[in-house]
Amino acid sequence: MELVFTTWNEVEAYLDRSKGIIVPLGSIEQHGPNGLIGTDALCAEAIARGISGSDDVMLGPTIAFGVAPFNLRFPGTISMRSKTLMSIVTDYVQSLASQGFERFYFLNGHGGNVGPVRAACQDLQAERSLSASGSQRDMRFFFRSWWEYPTADALRRELYGEGEGMHATPSEIAITQALFPEHPKAAPAAAPPRLSIEYLRDHAGDNHADARQHRLHFPDGRVGSDSRLARPEHGRTLLDAAIEDGKRDYKTFLSQL
Amino acid sequence: MELVFTTWNEVEAYLDRSKGIIVPLGSIEQHGPNGLIGTDALCAEAIARGISGSDDVMLGPTIAFGVAPFNLRFPGTISMRSKTLMSIVTDYVQSLASQGFERFYFLNGHGGNVGPVRAACQDLQAERSLSASGSQRDMRFFFRSWWEYPTADALRRELYGEGEGMHATPSEIAITQALFPEHPKAAPAAAPPRLSIEYLRDHAGDNHADARQHRLHFPDGRVGSDSRLARPEHGRTLLDAAIEDGKRDYKTFLSQL
Amino acid sequence: MELVFTTWNEVEAYLDRSKGIIVPLGSIEQHGPNGLIGTDALCAEAIARGISGSDDVMLGPTIAFGVAPFNLRFPGTISMRSKTLMSIVTDYVQSLASQGFERFYFLNGHGGNVGPVRAACQDLQAERSLSASGSQRDMRFFFRSWWEYPTADALRRELYGEGEGMHATPSEIAITQALFPEHPKAAPAAAPPRLSIEYLRDHAGDNHADARQHRLHFPDGRVGSDSRLARPEHGRTLLDAAIEDGKRDYKTFLSQL
Amino acid sequence: MELVFTTWNEVEAYLDRSKGIIVPLGSIEQHGPNGLIGTDALCAEAIARGISGSDDVMLGPTIAFGVAPFNLRFPGTISMRSKTLMSIVTDYVQSLASQGFERFYFLNGHGGNVGPVRAACQDLQAERSLSASGSQRDMRFFFRSWWEYPTADALRRELYGEGEGMHATPSEIAITQALFPEHPKAAPAAAPPRLSIEYLRDHAGDNHADARQHRLHFPDGRVGSDSRLARPEHGRTLLDAAIEDGKRDYKTFLSQL
Amino acid sequence: MELVFTTWNEVEAYLDRSKGIIVPLGSIEQHGPNGLIGTDALCAEAIARGISGSDDVMLGPTIAFGVAPFNLRFPGTISMRSKTLMSIVTDYVQSLASQGFERFYFLNGHGGNVGPVRAACQDLQAERSLSASGSQRDMRFFFRSWWEYPTADALRRELYGEGEGMHATPSEIAITQALFPEHPKAAPAAAPPRLSIEYLRDHAGDNHADARQHRLHFPDGRVGSDSRLARPEHGRTLLDAAIEDGKRDYKTFLSQL
Amino acid sequence: MELVFTTWNEVEAYLDRSKGIIVPLGSIEQHGPNGLIGTDALCAEAIARGISGSDDVMLGPTIAFGVAPFNLRFPGTISMRSKTLMSIVTDYVQSLASQGFERFYFLNGHGGNVGPVRAACQDLQAERSLSASGSQRDMRFFFRSWWEYPTADALRRELYGEGEGMHATPSEIAITQALFPEHPKAAPAAAPPRLSIEYLRDHAGDNHADARQHRLHFPDGRVGSDSRLARPEHGRTLLDAAIEDGKRDYKTFLSQL
């Protein structure tokens, strides 16, 4: 079930069957010369939609905006401040929790969201933990980036090896190729500059250089990823693998004590 | 052009042709027994997509989450605090402004967003106005709710008269029927309770009752709207009218001194 | 009754008679060559004082500071950020609500306050709506700009026609002339530049240009208003009309279900 | 000169003569059985108005709302959160500083404002100190509570001795009696409970008990003050003394290097 | 007892004996040519540790970071914004209050903390006072700067007279000399510039000049303090005096009604 | 060099040799029956002190307060909200950056800090990236939890195997035993409940259960860690290993392009 396409009566009925919801998390940022700016949101949403194919799993609306300040010098990137993403997650969760939802499964498509979303979940639990009232309902969070799914992870390594790289990866681009054949993009002529692991580590987004440095170091936006390798048929296989992994993972989360 | 389906190189090239962008604003909230929870976001996005059909108009990603606290007692409603929506708008605008965008046209689908988005725009201008540096680029905002478009407004009054009402209107439901025939919903058996204008005025969301009172006063979620009247063919006509109105309106905005 | 001139015992007794309070909202900003910087606050306060002439209507202290960033380049303008005005309204309301006040009638004197005050009221209701506890007292808001009062509105149009304009209007200046004859100001020599409706619409404060542009477009501060037309005797008539309208409007608000 | 009664042209001209402004700070809170709720704001404003009697001294609009959470259980008290008062001070100062004002003299009428206003001033200086740009104009603050003025302080001790107490003092009530004879209040029948210095110290607002405890300890709102002693003629003398002290103090502030 | 060196079981047992805790407050800022950057935190912590020598007094972890924006141009100074210090105090207090602590005694080592910490305590009480629930536990604050202790204060005046000055005082430096003989610093060659009381008053941190001005006025960081006079043996005596004063003061606080 | 024990002149001289600083991050929270509440801060600080043994490496003051809401039901735990820790990190970094520091190496001792500190660093870079001015100095961050150091990590696995567990680990307790023999604690009588990997995963702090659930699931505070195994001599070895690893790691960070 997909929340935006239901009525409130259908949601009310759903809450008798389940207290869980899947929340896709994306980012609006450059993905190199042939990657879509919406890649992260589009991938997370598609996988989450696959997981929520039955009437017993609810797909919440995608939080498409992520935290990607290091990509701001590439036009088209829209980056939330961490505090903003934390507020979005807080209001999203509190709204649904006031209605009976208790289990929030974040399906993430962008590395820069990990810190802020975990921070938001900790603060949500802090408010509950500091409050005097003892009768509160349960509230549990789970956070999973899709590339951590074991089958999908094995597949992308098998398909692309070192070419998978770190940003604008062929795997995520292949998924959007499978999903949106009506938006074809010409592959870049060249591989990304061949970089040592050390170089990549020093300059990847997680080490928090600013946007000027980031564009200087990675002039076409790819961080070690050879996005020429992406093929729509890979994307379909990756999607299927991630969806199967996700179904199991979500079920495990719901069964936690 | 639709930002999420472009590459950063395409956005860079677009900025040579135009500094404008259309930003759809929605809400995730109950829309009565046969209205989709995503109605406001879906309508605003569809109209904005229609306006941005050429290579000279950029459609930004939809801010689907709006401010609708009065609907929180209807399951499925996700309401941002006003401050959160203000932060989203701020980060969205500042990201793109740092890359050269100068004209932001908000195409709104939900009444509760008017206050917070105007407030955010005022604060963005305040920061610019208080800063000492004189060399800043231009930054201009325009805010339009789609039902204010003259042709679309005339059409919905002609089609539904008093049945249009104030929330979960047949016009917005008709638009989603036209857009998503794969999600049909059974029309409610009855008209909404017949309410005097005074009663509606006193209890509508704009007068800021809380969610408990709101559900008490409007038990099936409709505020004076006879959503049984909605037809997909109306929706198509309304969409076309709004898109034509919007193209003119956006062009006028871009031509402002 | 005027809160600042009562004792707490008198307020305690008042709460047995009524749960309502009138809150005037102003702005501290330029009002052209012969308008007082305090115009908006002074007008709203005077009208609210007239409405609250009996022991059954309480006048709260004026929130004189409003949101007017577009006027910051005119010396003397003091503009709050929207978030600040939202915090003032929040603390004002929560203080009195903790003591038993339930109905807050905002009598507004400045257009730029509409967005932020509505946003604050929505967030106040959101906190109530999200909280688990069911036993809360009622809390209701009403927001009215004085120029919306029907008799006062008709009068200003009749008196000034197109010369009323949009900022530093002869009607608000006439009211301050009636109230403060000890602060006479020389009328400007000339009418404001004759502007088309389109030009005004494009450049008025509501379209959120910044303070530099605003002063450039409206060099003496008037936005289409011919403030030479203001006369103290008009002001007295306008005041009386607004007060009568306001008494009815406030009574209707109190009688809401 | 009083800002709210000037035009922007007059302010522009004033800035050629002086960069200073006096900002009265008050509080809206209970002042015992015969003290006005607006006492603190009314006293500070009246003294500040006296100081700014010439064309070379500007009186800014009063920030009437202060921080007085301990008095919230007495109806009529409106207390700002500290953060809100800090935001008001910040926006007030930044607005005027952007136009050329450089010296801000806070004339305070309420003890609870000391912490938050100093905190706000420190944060304003922090932003300037952390910024890279070297060309900023001067910005200086001075904070003075009127009862610290030496002549006024000696006078209130001489008039009331121990009866002056700590809250709802006869001196501040005498000032409002002098200012507003049209709002007479009956003096309480009894002196406040006779309290030891230790008891007062332990329970005064500065030691931050909450509002429930505060009303319990001081049931009629007076903290050791015998407000029966207040006389309008005392008030006039106190006002005159404070105004003379204030004129000297403000002049000294302006002459600082 | 020192919280960081206890186990949670020991704290649980302590709460049966006492609800109090001592919270040292410091600052990380320049202290002239021979004063340690950590001086304020080190002094407050050492005195607090002395007071909490028994099993019935708990020493909380030091909040070493204070508000000192005026010293930011001296390398090594780390200044919190006032709002940040307010948040630290809030979270610190709310954490322990949720476990049963009720009396918080702030032992302060830095003048710039007074405003923000008082502001935070007022806001903590405001939240309690505004909340509807009546069953909350007690929460009381006390704020004391160590130099206010009567014996210690008399001693420092006796030892240094006018040479004590206002910042980087010989008394605080003597205390760190006594505590940390392994970090000797060469005394400056000269006394600080001889300044009139008026000059000092005008330029001291409390009057909120910014960091550029502050360094200009006090080029070696001392504000009228002749830190050459500091001796480790003075420090030992000062420490002992402050600890004895503090034990009495804390006991009085705990005995408040 | 240790910042709190230097003078500002020494810091000024240091900045000619290096732009780097090490910032230890801890937490104040329960560490089971024989673990100190300050464990995380004490370990991180000791390792960082070892790394900064020379005049070319600066040790900044420890941020002892971390984010640990799940432990709030164990007395003694002091947890910052994520937003508070983000503000501390922001003000800490901006203070030093304004003086010339450019490289910030966070040496972390608590898992719950990862999200908030990364979030803060992203927001710091966002402000730089969004600002128009091009002449800013470099600002780089590195985040390392000490148990990730390869030698130390291997050692703790070798010493304790599965008994290392997830919270109140024998390795961190051994380190505090080595550092603070004057605070001995009796080891618990029993091993922690034997838990499956799945059970641990479901209930560890990272999955964000609230404090009530957390204490219910882990009644003595240990999460799968057999803290009986800790020995002071292990602690010394672990410390030495971590310090050597850290020296290399910090040097690598400084050498990044």
What's the short story on this structure?
Six copies of one chain form a homohexamer. Chain A has 257 residues and is mainly α. Chain A has helices at 8-17, 39-51, 82-97, 114-130, 150-160, 170-179, 197-203, 211-217, 232-254, and strands at 20-25, 103-108, 140-145.
Mean pLDDT of chain A: 93
Name the CATH superfamily classification of chain A.
Creatininase
Write out the strand line-up for the largest beta sheet of chain A, numbering strands in chain order.
Answer: 1-2-3
Would you identify the CATH architecture of chain A? 3-Layer(aba) Sandwich
Quote the distance from N terminus to C terminus of chain A: 25 Å
Q: What general outline of chain A do the C-alpha atoms trace?
A: globular
Could you tell me the number of beta strands of chain A? 3
Task: From the 3D structure, determine the CATH topology of chain A.
Answer: Rossmann fold
Greatest interface and its participating residue counts:
A-B, 55 and 55 residues
- Number of domains as seen in the coordinates of chain A: 1
Radius of gyration of chain A: 19 Å
Assign the CATH class of chain A.
Answer: Alpha Beta
Give, in order, the helices and strands of chain A. Answer: HEHHEHEHHHHH
Question: Any key phrases for this structure?
Answer:
homohexamer, 257 residues, mainly alpha, Rossmann fold, three-stranded parallel beta sheet
Structural features, described:
The structure is a homohexamer of 257-residue chains. Chain A has 257 residues and is mostly helical. Chain A contains nine helices and three strands. Chain A has a single domain, classed as Creatininase (Rossmann fold, 3-Layer(aba) Sandwich), CATH 3.40.50. In chain A, helix 3 crosses helix 4. Chain A is globular and about 60 Å long. Chain A starts with 7 loop residues before the first helix and ends with a helix. The mean pLDDT of chain A is 93. Chains in contact: A-B, A-C, A-E, A-F, B-C, B-D, B-F, C-D, C-E, D-E, D-F, E-F. At the B-F interface, loops of B face loops of F.
